[in-house]
Structures are given as C-alpha cells and as structure tokens.
Design a protein that fits this description.
globular; single chain; 59% helix; mainly alpha
C-alpha cells in the first residue's frame, strides 16, 4: 500500500538513526494534571487529533474559562495554524494571566519542544531560563537544553550540564536528574561531530554511574563509528552490547551493516547480514533483516565495485518477499555507473520505470554519471533532457556531472563556458562542480584558470570543501610552489578541515619539487604531522616520506612515533574519519596568491573536521541514504563474522611513559556509585593511555593533527590539566567500584568542545 511504501522510504532515508534518537522531541500537546476531563476539553482534543487546528483555536478562544490543559491545547492550535512559537508562547502566557492560571512545567515543556523543532537553539536556552525562574525544570526540558547546546556546537556547555545532572544533589531543584535520553542526545551529537571514541566514552560513563544503557544507546554508539566508516569498531560495540545481555534489533544490525557499506566492504557486509539472518532465525525472530538491510548490502557492493553482487543482493531481497523501492533501483544503477557500464545503468533505469517507480533525481544522476565517466558528454546531456521530460528538475549534482563529462571529454573551455552559463542563470551549484574544473586546470598546467575558478566559487557563495583545497594545493605542487600549497592547506584548516591522504600527497609533491637543500627542511613538519594523525600511511606516502627525509631518518622517525603510542598513522592504518559539515567553522576566505600563508608549518594546526563531500560525478550524494561514502581501507572479512561471537576483553596496557613525581589521587565526582558493570580492563587501559599521553605532552611531544586527538575523552583546552587531576600508575588493579569512580572522575574533567 502507499502508506507502507512511505514508511519504507522514511526508514531508508535514515538507516543509522534508531527510534527515539536524534528525533525531535514529541510536543506533549495535552498534559493532564488531573484525570478529570470535561466534554469541552474532549471536543478540543478531538479537533486537534484530527488536525483541524483552526476550528480548535476558534473553540478555545471563545471559551469563558480555561485551565492549564486547555492553555496547552491553545498553544498547540496556535502552532498548528502557523503562528510563530514565540508569539504562541506569549499568547499562552497571556491566557494564563487572564484566567488566573499559574503556568506549570507542562506548558514550558510544550514551548521548549516547539522551539526545539522550529526555533534557534538560543531561543530554547532563553526559555529554559524563564522556566527556571517560574517552575522546577524537568528532565525533558533539560534534555532539550542539552540538544540546544549541541546544536550550537557548545560541547563544553553540554558536558557541564550533563555532568551537573549526574552530580545533582538530593532535593535540589536544578538541574534535574538525567535519564537515558540525556545520554543518547550527547552520544548522537558526538557521532554527528565525528567523535565516535568520545561517544563510546559517554556510554561507558553512563554504565559505570549506574544508569542502564538500552539497545538504543548502544545503537547510537554503533552508528557513531558507522558514520566514520569504521566497521571493526562498530562490530566491537555490538559485541559489547551482546555481552551486556541486550538483544539487538533491526536498527542495530543495520547500523553495523552501514559501517561496512561506508567502508566499501561488500564481504564484511555480506558476512554481517548472514549472521543477522541466522540470529533472527535462532534467537531474535523480531529482528529480521528488512528492506534497509538489503539496500545497504547493495550499497556496499556498489561502493566496492561489485555490480554483479549488487544485482544478486537485489534478487535476494525479492526472494525474501520484500518490495524494492527507489533506493533499491538507484543503488543498482549506481553500481553499474561506478563500473563504467553506461548501458547496464540505463537498463536498470528502464527497469525502474517498468516497475512503476518514477525515477527521481538520484536515479537520473546515477545514470548520467555513467556517461560522464566515459567522457560521453552528448549522452550525459541526453540523460538530463530525459530527466527534465520526466518532470524532474536537475540538482547541483546534475550540473557537477555535466561539467565533469565535458572535462572528461577534454573540453575544458566548453566546461568553463557551461559553468559560467549556470552562474548567470542562477542555478544552484555545489563545490564538486568547481572542484572538477580546478583539478583539470591544474593537470593542464593552467594555474591562473584554476585560481579564477576558485574565485568564481567564492563569488557564487559556494562553500569550498577539502577536495577544493586539495585540488588547489595540487595545482601549486605541480609548480613546486610549497608556500602556496601550504597556504591552501592552512586555509582548509581554518575552515575546520583535517588533512587527508590527498592533502599530504600534494604537500609531499610540492616538497619533492624543491631544490635538494630545502627539501628535507620543508618536509619534516609535514611527515611528522602525518605520522601523528589518523590518516592511513599508504605505501605511496611511505615512499614519498622516505625520499624526502632519507631512508634512515624516516625509519628513525617512524620508530619514535610507534614507540610513543600516540595512535597516529605510524601505529595503525587508521580508517579515515569523515565529519559532519556542521562542524566546519567560518573563516576568512583564502585568496590564492601563491605567496601568503602559513610559514612552513605542517598540517597539525587546529583542524577539527574532514571534508564531507567528494566529486559529485563520482558519487551521487543524497539525504536518502545513511552515512557517506567510505574512503577507508576495507577491513578483513573476518571482522564481520566476528560481530556475533564474544571475545575476552584485552589485557590492560602498561604505559611506558614516566610518571609524575607526586601523583595525585583519583578524585570522586560526588555521584552515587554502584558496582561497576562495564569492562574493567578497558577502563584501566583508558586511564593508563590518558596518563601516558599527558606525560608525553609534558615532554613536548611531536605535533598532532586534529584527527589524531579525536580519540581522547578530554579536549585540547583542558589536556594540560588532566594529568594533574588524574594519575593512574601502570597495572594498578581496580577494586570494588573503583571503575565507576574512575569513569565519573574522567567525566568530571571531560570537556567536549
């Protein structure tokens, strides 16, 4: 039925979000203070439930006498008729005054919930202050305030509020005690901010403080790792959930599947789905794979370059009695487009139409990108014409695909003219449209044209991505202009983008073009930053580093970073994280002069997030799909098969860092403690790694990029003070509830900004 298809579409659009997490707070339109309900109230309530807000408002405004329940209904009716939240709140307060009613927590909860949906976070915090002055603040209101702080990216204020809620004194009016949603809100926000380690740390703190973590909380933590294309960690949290004797549901398994899809690992996704199916048959009959599960497997196959396997997954979902939707067909089209098979992509577009599903912009863009990959600009234009004929308007990705098709065909001037025409017509454009031209101009040795394209991008108010700055850095690297390349990278850092492997490749190329006497001096900061970051040390980067520094010097530097235990590229091939675009900070525009920029600095300064978009023609981006394209090196397939099996916790890691001469004792945070329910060995390992990292920092350790610091529970702003507050000697056993005390003490000093 149509309603069933609509529900399936909604589920596919947000496969990583478990029920009740990250969703808008449901506005409690009716708050019963007493079980007594008059016939007048019943009539007003029925009108609201039918969605007839206008008649409900007319009825309520004509009432001779209102009570608090009716005032709540009045507020809801006002919102439903299009009145602004602030204006509706004022009218509700006026109604209370006119009828001699003292506003209670329910009316404030309604106002805060409405502002949470439609108003700025600053308005939420302003009304919370009004609530505090009038009535005791409820946990629901505090949770909305938590969300407001997180929307403003004020992680420090959110951490302070959650901490104070956990440490709430008995009998105090404010803040109220936390509930599960309090922790879920913070965990979800940290996942969106590309900080999955901190999200898991909040989960551990929650458990060790005696709060019960539900499957929704674990799923939120899994989703945080899934968004960063880290399936091994997502599977590990799933095993932790199973060890807690909690039954995963379909949302949970789909989140793990998404991690493998984002990492372009079809083997891992297939093995996870097989475990999912077996577990559903044997232990969890209510957690069977759904359409999202098979669509996600198809996505993993498409991203892994396996179109035949994507088709096999499509046939499997049909065999399961599931009805494919537009996402199913679009993913099949994309799988063939990525493989450069334009005929097969067009064939699946025709199948989609024959099945009675109208292709949308995503489907047409996927088919169009297949022609663009082959440099067939004429076929791509015909596809766009068919798109318009079907009543589907081209999107920013469509324009990026067309420009790329012309670039692929070697028609740079035609591509530039097409872009200029789009700008004159006021079409909505995205960064990939400009990135393609900038990169092409760079490869053709046309630096002025590349810079002109970047200037046109800024003039059109199109926000540059990390790909944009990498393309500029590559343009300068081809000319051996290390100063300009570093200036481009510095500008990206100022916008909140962390360097990726392409950033370092451009910097290394620029250094290699320098005279021999300058090569090593300019390369050392960048190689050091790479080894301290979470960027994967690929074979290409390894060879470039060795050429720039010399084999012996690079080997010694690599060994020193491995011994430091910093968790950077030197110690593990990190799965490259991707950040929410909302973390990007405003910064002055970078003007590529080639002479101004950071002085010889590495890539370690203050970068908070990595680019959230790639070239639009290589991947069709859409909000319907959960997660983003993974750039990570796919983990072994065995990792997927281990998602169900339990394993013993790792032994505590002994720190090699020197200890301070006068260690201070672990401080209690004032929270009522219960016996620890979490992984004791993991907590001890965490504490020792924190102490080791702080001791290393005190000795002036090598610079680390923003990515390299994401795994810490504390932010850079308080890192120098944490060692003074907490020192844990190596291999000291934790007794009784010491694990709980440790977790809360870490939380006491935690700042998430």
């Amino acid at each position: 039925s149509r309603s069933k298809m609509l529900v399936q579409k909604m589920l596919v659009q947000t496969p990583l979000t478990p029920p009740g997490l990250g969703a808008d707070v449901v506005m409690p339109s009716i708050n019963e203070d007493t079980p007594t309900t008059t016939s007048f109230e019943a009539r007003a309530l029925e009108l609201l439930r039918l969605g007839d807000n206008a008649r409900a408002l007319e009825l309520l405004e004509g009432a001779d006498k209102l009570n608090i329940r009716l005032v709540n209904m009045l507020f809801t009716a006002l919102i439903g008729t299009g009145v602004g939240v602030d204006a509706a709140a004022v009218r509700a307060q006026q109604a209370c005054a006119a009828h001699g009613i003292a506003p209670n927590a329910s009316i404030f909860n309604n106002i805060l919930a409405a502002l949470d949906k439609a108003g700025p976070p600053e308005a939420v915090l302003a009304w919370l202050a009004k609530m505090r002055a009038a009535v005791p603040v409820t946990t629901t209101a505090a949770n909305i305030a938590l969300k407001a702080h997180l929307q403003r990216r004020d992680f420090g204020a959110a951490a302070e509020l959650l901490r104070s809620m956990m440490k709430r004194a008995a009998g105090a009016d404010y803040p109220p005690p936390p509930n599960e949603m309090s922790f879920n809100t913070v965990i979800s926000a940290l996942g969106d901010a590309a900080q999955p380690e901190r999200a898991e740390s909040v989960l551990s703190t929650m458990i060790d403080a005696g709060f019960t973590a539900s499957p929704v909380t674990f799923t939120a933590t899994i989703a945080a790792f899934a968004k960063q294309s880290r399936p091994a960690d997502a599977a590990r949290v799933l095993k932790r959930m199973l060890a807690a004797r909690l039954q995963p549901d379909t949302w949970c398994f789909n989140a793990v599947l998404s991690a493998y899809a984002n990492a372009a690992d079809p083997e891992g996704a297939r093995a996870t789905l097989a475990n999912f199916e077996a577990r559903a048959a044997e232990e969890c009959p209510n957690a069977a794979p759904d359409l999202v599960s098979y669509n996600t497997l198809m996505l993993a196959c498409a991203r892994g370059g396996r179109p035949a396997e994507a088709e096999a997954a499509f046939q499997k979902l049909l065999a399961r009695g599931l009805v494919p939707n537009e996402v199913s067909y679009s993913t099949a089209i994309s799988a063939h487009a990525r493989a450069g098979n334009a005929a097969a992509a067009q064939g699946w577009l025709d199948k989609m139409t024959a099945a009675g599903i109208a292709p949308d912009a995503v489907a047409f863009n996927a088919a169009c990108s297949a022609h663009a990959r082959l440099g067939d600009a004429a076929a791509a234009l015909r596809c766009v014409d068919a798109m318009r004929a079907a009543g589907v308007e081209p999107t920013a990705s469509t324009h990026a695909i067309l420009v790329n098709a012309l670039v692929k065909a070697g028609q740079l001037d035609a591509a530039s003219a097409s872009l200029q025409a789009l700008l004159v017509a006021g079409e909505r454009l995205s960064a990939p449209t400009f990135n393609t031209l900038i990169s092409a101009y760079g490869k053709a040795g046309r630096r002025p044209d590349a810079e002109a394209a970047f200037s046109a991008m800024l003039a059109a108010n199109v926000r540059p991505s990390l790909v944009t700055y990498n393309a500029l850095a590559s343009v300068y690297a081809l000319e051996g202009d290390i100063d300009a390349a570093e200036a481009a990278v510095h500008a990206a850092s100022q916008r909140g983008f962390a360097p990726d492997r392409f950033t370092y490749a451009a910097l290394f190329n620029a250094c290699e073009a320098l005279p021999a006497r300058d090569r090593r001096r300019r390369a050392v900061p960048h190689v050091t930053a790479l080894l301290s970051s979470r960027v994967e040390l690929t074979e290409r980067l390894r060879r470039s580093s060795a050429r720039l520094l010399g084999d012996d010097s690079f080997a010694a530097l690599l060994k020193s970073h491995r011994g430091s235990g910093g968790g950077g590229a030197a110690t593990r091939a990190a799965q490259r994280p991707r950040a929410s675009p909302s973390l990007r900070v405003e910064a002055p525009e970078f003007v590529p002069t080639g002479a101004e920029g950071a002085e010889g600095g590495g890539c370690s300064a203050g970068a908070a997030a990595e680019a959230g978009e790639d070239d639009g023609w290589t991947e069709v981006q859409t909000s319907r799909r959960g997660g983003r394209r993974g750039k990570a090196k796919p983990p072994p397939a065995a990792a997927a098969s281990a998602t169900i099996r339990k394993e013993k916790p790792p032994p505590p890691r002994t720190s090699t860092a020197p200890l301070p001469s006068a260690p201070s004792p672990v401080r209690l945070a004032g929270v009522p403690l219960t016996r620890s329910k979490s992984n004791r060995a993991r907590l001890l390992e965490l504490a020792q790694s924190v102490a080791a990292a702080e001791a290393g920092d005190a000795e002036g350790g090598s610079p680390a990029s923003g990515d390299g610091q994401r795994g810490s529970m504390r932010s850079r702003s308080v890192s120098s003070n944490l060692a003074d507050a907490l020192t844990v000697p190596p291999a000291v056993p934790l007794t009784r509830s010491a694990a709980s005390e440790l977790a809360i003490t870490l939380g006491d000093d935690m700042r998430l900004e």
